[in-house]
Amino acid sequence: MPRLTITLSDARHRALKEAAARRRKSIAAIIEESLELTGIRDLNSAAALVARARASAGLAADEAAALAERETRAARTPSP
């Protein structure tokens, strides 16, 4: 598995360690979950998601891709 080094503020690192301890999970697991929840996926996972959406909604490939893009952008846009 690849390794990654990131730089966090002391406060963010402390908060991450506390969250991991509260949830009885590793910091890596917390980060993986966070990435998943924010929609960060590999191309194959994204393609599978679009395929499932197409199958259940009866959309053409271009319609499903456009809908997935709109929904992803809406989910990633911070609320005021």
Provide the descriptors you would attach to this structure in a database record.
80 residues; mainly alpha; 2 domains; 0% strand
Architecture overview:
The protein is mainly alpha-helical. The chain folds into two domains: 8-37; 43-76. 70% of the residues lie in helices and 0% in strands. It has four helices and no strands. It has helices at residues 10-23, 27-37, 43-57, 61-76. The protein is elongated. The N and C termini lie far apart (37 Å).
What topology does this entry show?
Blueprint: H1 10-23, H2 27-37, H3 43-57, H4 61-76
Helix pairs in contact: 3-4
Number of strands: 0
Distance separating the two termini: 37 Å
Helix content: over 70%
Number of helices: 4
Q: Low-confidence parts lasting 5 or more residues at pLDDT below 50?
A: none
The average pLDDT score comes to 87
Residue fraction in strands: under 5%
**Whole-number tally of structural domains:** 2
Shape: elongated
Order of helices and strands: HHHH
Which structural class matches the secondary elements? Answer: mainly alpha
